[in-house]
Design a protein that fits this description.
27% of the residues lie in helices and 31% in strands. The protein is built from four helices and nine strands. The chain has helices spanning 3-36, 57-63, 132-135, 194-206, and strands spanning 39-45, 64-70, 89-90, 105-106, 122-129, 144-152, 162-176, 185-192, 207-214. By secondary structure, the protein is of the alpha+beta class. The protein folds into two domains: 37-116, Type Iii Antifreeze Protein Isoform Hplc 12 (Alpha-Beta Complex), CATH 3.90.1210.10; 118-215, no CATH class. Strand 7 and strand 8 form a beta hairpin. The radius of gyration is 23 Å and the shape is globular.
Length: 215
C-alpha cells in the first residue's frame, strides 16, 4: 500500500469518527431538550467578581462567559450576554461559577459595596428556602425590604416554632442555592446589622428553614 493510499485511508477514518461524534452529540442534546426543556443562554462568572468593582469591557471579556442551560434551571433575572453587565457594579462578591443576576448589580452612581447601605449594615449571604415567592413576579429589585423568618426543628413531642429573626432588611441579591433547585433553595445577599448576621448565621446550623417574606 502506497503512502498516499494510507494517508487517504487515515483521512477517511477521521471523517467517519467526526461524523459519529457529531451524531452522538446531537442525540445527547436532543435528549436534554426532551427531559429538561429548551436550552437558553445565561451569563456566568468565570472568575471571582469583587463587590464594588465596576465590570468594564476587559473584565467582562475575561471574567464572564455565556453558557446554555435547560430552561427549567434558568433563574429569574439572569443576564444573557456580557454587554448587559458592562458598567454595572456587584453589590456583593460573586464567586466563579455563579449566574449573574440583575438583582446582584447596580449602576455605579448607587455606590459600591457597603456604600448607600444604612449605617451599620453590611452585605451577608444566607441560604434561604421558598425563594419562588420572590421570583414569581420577576427578579426582586435591589434594596427591596424583606422579613427573614426562621423555622426551628421540632423538639420531642413539641412542634417547632417560626419567628421573624430580622425584620425589614434590604435584599441586595438572590442567587441559586447549593441544591440547584429553582424556587426551593437560594442564596440571598442581605444588608444586615452585626447582631442580625450572627443570629442568622447561627440559625443556618440548627433551623429547618430560613424563609424570606416580601413586604
Amino acid at each position: 500500500m502506497s503512502r498516499r493510499t494510507r494517508a487517504l485511508g487515515f483521512l477517511l477514518a477521521a471523517l467517519i469518527a467526526a461524523a459519529a461524534a457529531a451524531t452522538v452529540a446531537n442525540g445527547y442534546g436532543d435528549s436534554v431538550v426532551r427531559g429538561y426543556g429548551e436550552l437558553r443562554p445565561v451569563l456566568v462568572a468565570s472568575a471571582d467578581l469583587r463587590a464594588g468593582k465596576p465590570i468594564d469591557p476587559a473584565l467582562a471579556a475575561e471574567g464572564l462567559v455565556v453558557r446554555r442551560v435547560p430552561v427549567r434551571f434558568v433563574p429569574a433575572g439572569v443576564l444573557v450576554a456580557p454587554p448587559e453587565a458592562v458598567g454595572l457594579v456587584p453589590t456583593a462578591p460573586i464567586p466563579a461559577g455563579s449566574y449573574l443576576l440583575a438583582a446582584q448589580l447596580h449602576p455605579p452612581s448607587e455606590g459600591g459595596s457597603g456604600a448607600g447601605l444604612p449605617e451599620g449594615r453590611r452585605p451577608v449571604e444566607i441560604a434561604v428556602s421558598g425563594a419562588g415567592a420572590l421570583q414569581a413576579l420577576g427578579a426582586p429589585s435591589v434594596g427591596a425590604k424583606v422579613d427573614v423568618a426562621v423555622t426551628t426543628e421540632s423538639s420531642g413531642s413539641g412542634a417547632g416554632r417560626t419567628y421573624v429573626a430580622a425584620p425589614a432588611v434590604p435584599l441586595l441579591g438572590l442567587g441559586p442555592g447549593t441544591e440547584g433547585v429553582e424556587g426551593e433553595s437560594a442564596t440571598a445577599t442581605l444588608a444586615l446589622t452585626r447582631s442580625q448576621a450572627l443570629r442568622l448565621i447561627q440559625a443556618e446550623s440548627f433551623a429547618r428553614r430560613i424563609t424570606l417574606i416580601p413586604r
